[in-house]
Design brief:
- The protein starts with a helix and ends with a helix.
- The relative contact order is 0.15.
- Helix 2 packs antiparallel against helix 3.
- The chain is mostly helical.
- The protein is elongated, with a radius of gyration of 14 Å.
- It has one domain.
- Helix content is 75%, strand content 0%.
Length: 89
């Protein structure tokens, strides 16, 4: 399997995991900004995450224990980017 295809082949699992992460974040967004805003932001986060999957750097996938740290960083990068786009801290 080519490096770029690794995360694409894992897309279903990555999206599932990110959706679970996003639902945990939604609790905090709803408390601060309300349900409508948080639902809109979560939808954008999911779209952005799906778009970025092919761009995630390949670092040997499951053969590298640091892959989980990389994927966690991508999760928070998506949150940051969407909130920044919405002019929210």
């Amino acid at each position: 399997m080519q490096q770029k295809e690794y995360y694409i082949s894992e897309k279903h699992l990555l999206l599932k995991n990110f959706n679970e992460f996003a639902q945990r974040i939604k609790v905090f967004l709803t408390a601060k900004y309300g349900d409508n805003f948080s639902s809109e932001v979560i939808d954008e986060m999911l779209d952005d995450y799906e778009d970025i999957i092919p761009e995630i750097p390949y670092i040997r996938g499951k053969n590298n224990p640091m892959t989980q740290n990389l994927l966690s960083s991508v999760d928070y990068f998506i949150v940051y980017n969407v909130l920044k786009r919405k002019n929210k801290p």
